[in-house]
Fold these 3 entries.
Entry 1:
Amino acid sequence: MSDRIFGTLTIVVALAYIASASQIKLPFLVDPLGPRWFPYIIGAVAVLAGLAMVLRPDDEPEWPALMAFGNIGLACLVLIAYALTLRPLGFLMPTALAAGLLSYQIEQRKLQAILTGVGLSGGLFIIFKFALGLGLYGVPKGWLN
Amino acid sequence: METMTLLGQGFSVALTPTNLMLAVAGCILGTIIGALPGLGPSNGVAILIPLAFSLGLDATAALVLMTSVYYGAMYGGRISSILLNIPGDEPALMTTLDGYPMAKAGRAADALVISGVASFVGALLATFGLILMAPILASIAYKFGPAEYFALYLLAFSTLGGLTGNNQAKAVLAACIGLAIATIGGNSSGTPRLSFDSLYLYDGVNFLVAIVGLFAVTEVFVFIESSGKNTAIGVKIDKITIPVRDIIRTFGTMLRGTVIGFIAGILPGAGASLGSFLAYSGEKAYAKDKSQFGKGDVRGVAAPEAGNNAAAGGALVPMLTLGVPGSGTTAVLLALLMTLNITPGPTLFSDRPEVVWGLIAALLISNVVLLILNVPMVKIFVKILMVPPWVLLPGVTMVSFVGIYSISSSWFDLLLMIGFGTLGFFLRKLDIPTVPIILGILLGGHMEDALQRAMVISGGEWQYLFSSKIAIGLWIAAVVGFVAPMFLRKFLKQPDAVPD
Amino acid sequence: MKHLNLKSLTLGAVLSLGMAAPTLAAECIAPANPGGGWDFTCRSIGKIMFDIGAVDAPIQVTNMAGGGGGLAYGLVVNDRSDDAELIVAASSATATRLAQNAYAGMTYDQVRFLGAIGVDAGIIAVATDSPFQNLNELLDAVIADPSSVTFAGGSAVGGFDHLKVLMALKRQGLEDIRTVKYIGVDGGGDAVTQAIGGFVQAITGDISEVVGFIKSGDVRVLAVLTEDRLPGEFGNIPTAREQGIDVVAGNWRGLYVPKGISDDEYARWSNALQAVADSDEWAAAMEANGLTAFNFVGDDFQIYVSNLMGEIADLSREIGVIE
């Protein structure tokens, strides 16, 4: 069933892809291929592959329990929050928080998680900033002036 | 004879105590950078250039440091591929296919040693190839026009079906996902497309974002779901010995991988990823018993590692002799050379022999240093799997984020990476292989560009695609590569048709 | 991981000793991946600024690929508009994209152009075995039969390399420039390989991209697109103007800074850039990379960029790149 659902989804997305490819502005000079044909071909092949999945599905995979799905969703949210705060808040605080939360998700021990977060955040900052010379800011930029 | 004299002079330049120390430091640093997901040879070399400047190194010393980082990163990429199923960089992608199953079965150390030796063989022979034939090899690039490149990329995609998984439709679908992603952003016909007027998508999707998302982030999700079952983390490792028998057995594999990888490396625009990919699929096509590929076949580790290291050496040929960088890393090395006031090109070998031969000597030295470092260091590497997952996984995640953040310093790439991670989780469940997606992203743009250029040059005549012997040869290989696996599959399905 | 961390920490500490790494070094953004022209600008100018003591700490180079430079431009306009410790690499390509409105509506006056201190002369060239001996022969052949010649260049369709050829052809009297065949390849070196291989008939690019091939005798430059002949070893190459085709196009290498910095800060940076321009180190870097002097630092440069953009916008409108 999962294969069938995914196959159908693929066909829908592929058709949408073809539709948006047909809207691409054509270039102003000689270009026999043009920017649309390659997407058309890919879209068409994807539709065929989707059909194959609908018609000849594999065995049903083992989906995680609802609880596990919740955990993955939670981890996903943590990562998104991390991505959005990395620049405004600097490296140290968001990294400590995100690493700590992930660690706690994997094994539910508070102290261990806090230590992991703080240790990783400080250690990685030193490596990336000073050994590798990446342009990171440890704390919000405003604090430095 | 003259070559030997020049090489001798090269060694006398490269073998000073300072340079030797730099080579060792560069190899270690490169290995670490290569193993960290998101940081590969190209950004590894790029972020170390300021270091070379601030240390006030002269041209040869800077080159020694940078080439040892380059080769170190090529070696290092395989470590995280094998241990964590996360390619440290894109050329190490293929090594996940058999390296990780080996690690799950407790053979992590074997996989690391074999791939280390394969890397050595590939890199060493490629360096000899560079010494003996660079000027001749450079002319191969003149034989490859748009039609030939298009056929070459087609060959790569045609062998995908026989490569991973059991369901060909799923491999094709995965390739389509990658190719579709590759069509986002500006292409050589000038008009930006499918970028939804977003500056973030104007240049397309960076393959590193996809690779780290689909592997590293997905791996974190899978771990959380299974509470740590079904991974190599914490698997008891067999006693560490040097798998002499396997090394001897795979020696032919390494040689074949080296040849394929080296040729792919020489062609600008193909590069190390294509080298390791073709080395793997070539080896699988060559092997009589294919049943263990993807389940932990030692040949599946030896072939791509010989291939990508040979390609790394091969990629230096067009860079040095034509000034054409065939890969991201050689582009950075080229920039470094220009900053040092050295202009690569057809006259570099005669104008600046001391630089060229110093570089070649540096390559040979760092290769030997890496082999010496790598075999005993396997003991340290495998201990990574003993690090408790509650430190290891957050650590890998944070490293991935910083690696991706360093590309464009934007949150957009990070969110995209999380998106790829989520997609990867579902694909993994549905048994849809992710390797073809990466290849699609890596090669799709090149493939379309080649086709577009061929059509402009010929004024829309399709026959142009078959207008040279090389192109026709590649087309035939592509058709055979696509059709042969289908027949072989049928053949192998008969239970008694599987020989040992 | 723990062991790796320990190892790299030690190593990092050792290596850091050699580095003067103050926390607030100035930053140069190269708005592209490592290895291109912008990257070269940041790395060379940054290195020389530190070497000659124009700045106190090594300048840290950040690569910010995206949007053909637009991502970095947006960052400077929106987020860091008063950051006095920031310089950004720019070139003729920056002006071209701004003129073609390819930076999502952002305009050139939203930053302050600092100056350009070197120019990479534009060229039109052919492989040595090509029948074309001068620019007129090549252009006339295109006019007689546009399908007989394909040009290859390092920029995408509508980019600066492409515009150069179209400008020349217009001056020579070609009416419908849309029929001209052009392929955008991955850089000048690639364009040369395709020409030597016989896949394309002519190359448009910058002289730095073909220096090695001129020396090896694989490439014949039909014209440099400069006002006067180049100094030094390339002085025997005729200009397009000499051949009666009035096209001057060079790819200058320069910098811009955020709009909101004080005039003092702006003066500090323009002095530093001028010091680089006057240094022997820069002279050597220019020579090795085929650049020629182009000294245009300070407010005049802003005016120069604005004029240049006007020209590019007119031409782009004429050929249909923009409406």
Entry 2:
Amino acid sequence: MILESTLKAIELLISLDQEIYTIIFLSLTISILATITASFFGTIIGILISISDFKLKRFTKKIVFTFMGIPPVVLGLVVLLLITGPFDGMNLLFTKSAMYIAQTLLVLPIIIGNIIISSEKTQKKVLETATTLGASKYDKLILLIKEIKPFIFMSVILGFSRALSEVGAVMLVGGNIKNDTRVMTTYIALNNSMGEYSVSIAMGIILLLIAFMLHTLLARFRGDFYD
Amino acid sequence: MKKLIVLLGIIFVFTLSSCQKKELIIVTTTSLENSGLLAYIIPHFEEEYGVFVKIVALGTGAALEMGEMGEADILLVHAYASEVEFINNGYGEKRHNIMYNDFIFVGPTTLSTSTLEETLETISENHDFYSRGDNSGTHKMELSLWNQFDYDVTSFGDWYKETGQGMGSTLTMTSLSQYYTLTDRATYLSMLENLDLVIAYENSVELKNQYGVIKVNPELHNREELYADQFYDWILREDTQALIATYIKYDTQLFYPNS
């Protein structure tokens, strides 16, 4: 079965089937965009939480850490209720935008959580010096971003993996529409339901290959992380 | 790095702007999607009217729910009583029969029973059974069958399990567990090569499976209703009906048009 599926995976890839490539491309695009958005806001929010002192800091951190483990399908449901409720007029349900929103919200707490942890570890030494030199909050933010770069990098990878591999949220708000909102994970789920396991495994292999290639690419930017 | 961001920005805009405006959202049952009929006939509609059709496959119960929320333009479903209720509650503008086929009991071996009553009795006494359990058209049909012969589903023991999944998943599970289940003939036939199941009982009169088309009340949403009208007329049109009749798998016609 596995050998057969591996052959099928190769066959699928070289057959230049446009549908398969559209699915792969959409998966990557949405997950990458969601990860970038979440990383941008997540890093800033994470560092701000870690360097600020406010009343509900402990509580906020608890909330963030809780949401790091939210089941994608539950988050999908929340997004569904939002876009069919308060934002009903925008017709977002069953669109790529809805999938992008869901994945961004899914990745955001992972980035924030990881940044808080790493930033709190680093800041003590760095910030004391910076404060005596009269740094503003903005200066501290920039300084910390520079200091914890490797951790940001790691959080981004974690977040991206979560986005690329989740199926519950995109299935719910995207609807797995052929030639439109179908991504690799929902395509795998569909094939599983039809008993087409070999196509599923083939897509699974492709998904893993893509992740591997991405890491190979990233290793060129940050070789030290992979040594 | 900056180049990369610009590139991704372009892709982002491209992806979002590629959302076509001329589109029609059809929410349908998993059985219609899994049987492959829609993939067979819908391209003809898309070509003729230049409208992109978005097909979302959910159970009939969930499809009607989407209709009530105004998230669908057209519903293709198979639960007559619920459909009439949907129309009467003002959620749907109009409804019409499209086509029918039949439900069948499938399992590891044929039951060699001659009546529906006998079939249900044999299953409930000697076999394990997977129910869809998802409020779909097929699930509603199955419940009405038990009900018809005064069985109380809630009192059933361990032999009766609800999968809570679509027709395709449930058939796959039934095949893997070697249980019995009720399915529409179209989904069963279109998945035949992946299933280790045979027809256990069939009776196309008692187990008729009628599909209907519903145009959702356009007041429930702010999308263009023209395409829904076009589709409604198109699927009931004579040549489309003839097209449905030509959808054949394993030498069997899967749907019988009756608009």
Entry 3:
Amino acid sequence: MHHFHSEFRECIVVSSKGLVEIVFHGRGGQGAVTAANLLVAAALKDGNKGVQAFPVFGAERRGAPLRAFARISEEEIHLRSEIYFPKIVIILDESIIEIVDVLKGLKKDGKILINTTKKPEDFDFSKKYGVATIDATGIALKHDILVGGIPVVNTPILGAIPKILDRVTLPSIQAVIKNKWKGEGGEINVKATQDAYDSVEVNF
Amino acid sequence: MTVMIIDTGNYIAAKAAVMARPGVVAAYPITPQTTLVEGIANYVKSGEFKGEYICVESEHSAMCACIGASAAGVRTFTGTSSHGLLLMHEMLHWAALARLPVVMCNINRVVGPGWNIWPDENDSISQRDTGWIQFYCSSNQEIFDTVIQAFKLAENEKVLLPVMINYNAFILSHTSMPVYIPEQKEVDDFIPKYKPKWKLDVNNPITFGNIILPADYEKIRKDMQSSSENAKKLIPEIAKEWKKKFGRYHGDLIEKYKCENAEYILLAMGAIGAESKVSIDNLRKEGLKVGLARVRTFRPFPQEEILKLGKQADLIVIDRNISVGFEGALFSEVKASLYDKSDAKVYGFIAGLGGKDVTYNDIEIICKKTIKGKVKDCEWYGLEGV
């Protein structure tokens, strides 16, 4: 659907101060779109005035690779196009690395957060980019965060994000989670974010 | 107290519609409008929406129900998209000619076949001559503010025309953005209860839509035209009042951005109009004197404002639509506005049909190509393999 014009180049977006663009790669059902929405709600709480979250528009199928986008800025965001040059890439399903070029357009100082049992050094691209790893599936299973028998990894992943992005804090992430899922459901997901925050490994 | 919430364009439109306290909402779901209807249904469940919510079997019936309700004297709202809007076509004329102030959101979506749910503007552009006022929004905040303002405009005795608020499929309908929501009382004060001069009333029977002979029919058409001219004056007044009360302003018939000393002014509608601000900033940084005029109302058309721009600069028009057999619709209207009154050059580009992404970079390329004098009068931007 989108296209890269032959003259397409990355240029400085001067109209939005402190803009951070984030791409989530997941599979339908893993909660990537919800993760993007919760992340920007937390970022707004943390004083970032311009935020935006949106899915790749189209038919979504359970299990199929999909992307979701988030923008966080110090001021109002005028951009309405997809994200082509992310600062952060978040991978909810490790197997997607084999089939999607997840590093496409990643900025030179970009960071990658992966749901995996491996360590950052286990990934070749850790020589070039900042890599953070978290066993989000393990945490989801530990806390019994399942939908239709499938572990939903989005809340553990959210807990790991403050370790790679200082514009969003763990208390804000936990607050928006509690706001979305009242009662016990919210508490379980908050515990999962704490576990993730405490166990994330980084190479930077 | 004003609160800030973060939500998608459709949920924000639902919030605005419910805060306007319509007596009737009648709608039929269609992608990508579905979550707008879902949002209103949620307010029915929570008890926040106290009007009548009518589930109908088609969009034609949705507009018929709105016409009936509006004629009975209550504030009326609906929403649709693409083929749904097209199925309403006959009834769109009816609502306008009956002078019923129905307010509707249309989520701009491609018309098929081939089947495609992504954004372009051919659906609403093809309803240009129905007599509806047409707004095009570029942010979720603008959607909220425009829905409330639309009731005030439509229900004004000097206007009494239905209003269609257009916004791009997914780019706005499914994108979460922060939006300031005023208090219910503030909205109530801004748009008091709708009190029509005439309404269907069993205790005071009058006839609506009866046979009308040629000479009188011509008068009602002229009256619509005069009312649309009145709307041109009222839209800025209402926007000003909104700004005074709530501190937010999205422009009048057009929104100007960095047009001071511009030698070229870009004209666009909808989401491209927001993305263009990034392009203008970048072009200005490179020393290129380019400004933006985002067209907010396609009907009434901002002829006078565009003529002013044409006296200052050459114009670059981006259309996310095509009137097959001629050119982009905005391009045609812009040139017609200048005819015999300005010698500005006008360049037209077709871009983003079928939901193809239009980035700030694409818009910069369009502007630079034009400045270099390397364009034909009307071009299809970025078209590959044809």
